[in-house]
C-alpha cells in the first residue's frame, strides 16, 4: 500500500507541477486557470512518468498474484516451474529473481501496453475530474466543496477505468507471462492471441468491476489531494503573511 501511495503522490505531483509550469509559461502566473490543452498535456506527461515508476510495481504485484500456493523451500525444490507451484517468497525476492533472469528489460515487461493504458487513461482521469467538478460546483463559489470533489473524483475514476480496461487486460497478461512459461512475443502478439482465442469480449473483462471499484478509490484520492493542497496553502499563508 505504501508503494501505491508513493506512486499516486508522484503522479498527482507531476500533473500539478506541469500545469503550474504551463500556466507560468503561457500567462506569466503559475496560479492561472489552466486551459484544456494545458490539462491534456499535463495528463500526458503524468501518464508517461507513471509508466516509468509503475511498471515494476505492477509487474511484481501481478507475478505474486499468479502464485496459488505460499512459498516454501520444500515446495520450490520439488517443482518450481510447474503452474501453481510457488516461485517467489515476497516482493523483494520477486524483483530480484526477475532482475537475475531477465535483467532491466524484464522488470519493464508490459511497459508498452502500460503506456497505451496510462497515457489515455490519465487524460480520461484528470480532464473529466476538472470538468465535472466545475459543473457541479455552485455558481459563485470560489472553490468546490468536499462533496463536489468527492463526486467528481469518483466519476473521473469510473470513466478512466472504462477507458483503461482493454489495455489493462493486455498489460496484465504480458506481465503474468513468464512466471511459468512464455506465451507472448509482445503487445501486438498478446492482443492477437487473446482476440483469436477469446474474441473481442476478452478486452472488456472486468470492466464493470473496474469502474465500480474506481469510483470510491478515486473519490478518496482526489478529496485527499485537494484537502492536502488547501491545508498546505493555509499553512504557507500563515507563515508568510
Automatic annotation (TrEMBL):
TM ranges: none
Membrane topology qualifier: Multi-pass membrane protein
Keywords: Membrane, Mitochondrion, Repeat, Transmembrane, Transmembrane helix, Transport
Highest taxon, organism lineage: Eukaryota
InterPro entries tied to this protein: MCP (IPR002067), MCP_dom_sf (IPR023395), MCP_transmembrane (IPR018108), Mitochondrial_Carrier (IPR050567)
Record-level Gene Ontology MF annotations: transmembrane transporter activity
A single Gene Ontology CC term: mitochondrial membrane
Stretches forming Solcar repeats: 34-135, 144-231
Keyword Repeat annotated: yes
Major subcellular location class: mitochondrion
Keyword flag Transport: yes
Gene3D superfamilies the record matches: Mitochondrial carrier domain
Subcellular location(s) per record: Mitochondrion membrane
Similarity section: Belongs to the mitochondrial carrier (TC 2.A.29) family.
PANTHER family: MITOCHONDRIAL BASIC AMINO ACIDS TRANSPORTER-RELATED (PTHR45624), SOLUTE CARRIER FAMILY 25 MEMBER 48 (PTHR45624:SF7)
Name used for this protein in its record: Solute carrier family 25 member 48 isoform X1
Amino acid at each position: 500500500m505504501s508503494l501505491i501511495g508513493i506512486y499516486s503522490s508522484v503522479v498527482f505531483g507531476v500533473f500539478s507541477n506541469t500545469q503550474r509550469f504551463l500556466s507560468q509559461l503561457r500567462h506569466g502566473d503559475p496560479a492561472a486557470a489552466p486551459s484544456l490543452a494545458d490539462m491534456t498535456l499535463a495528463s500526458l506527461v503524468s501518464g508517461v512518468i507513471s509508466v516509468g515508476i509503475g511498471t515494476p510495481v505492477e509487474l511484481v504485484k501481478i507475478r505474486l498474484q499468479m502464485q496459488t500456493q505460499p512459498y516454501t523451500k520444500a515446495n520450490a525444490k520439488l517443482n518450481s516451474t510447474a503452474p501453481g507451484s510457488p516461485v517467489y517468497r515476497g516482493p523483494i525476492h520477486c524483483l530480484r529473481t526477475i532482475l537475475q533472469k531477465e535483467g532491466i528489460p524484464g522488470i519493464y515487461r508490459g511497459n508498452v501496453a502500460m503506456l497505451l493504458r496510462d497515457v489515455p487513461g490519465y487524460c480520461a482521469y484528470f480532464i473529466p475530474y476538472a470538468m465535472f467538478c466545475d459543473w457541479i460546483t455552485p455558481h459563485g463559489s470560489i472553490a468546490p466543496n468536499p462533496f463536489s470533489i468527492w463526486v467528481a473524483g469518483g466519476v473521473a475514476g469510473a470513466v478512466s477505468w472504462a477507458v483503461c480496461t482493454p489495455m489493462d487486460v493486455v498489460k496484465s497478461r504480458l506481465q503474468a507471462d513468464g512466471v511459468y512459461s512464455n506465451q507472448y512475443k509482445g503487445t501486438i502478439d498478446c492482443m492477437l492471441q487473446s482476440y483469436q482465442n477469446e474474441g473481442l469480449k476478452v478486452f472488456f473483462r472486468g470492466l464493470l468491476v473496474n469502474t465500480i471499484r474506481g469510483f470510491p478509490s478515486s473519490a478518496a484520492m482526489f478529496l485527499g489531494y485537494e484537502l492536502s493542497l488547501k491545508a498546505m496553502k493555509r499553512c504557507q499563508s500563515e507563515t508568510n503573511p
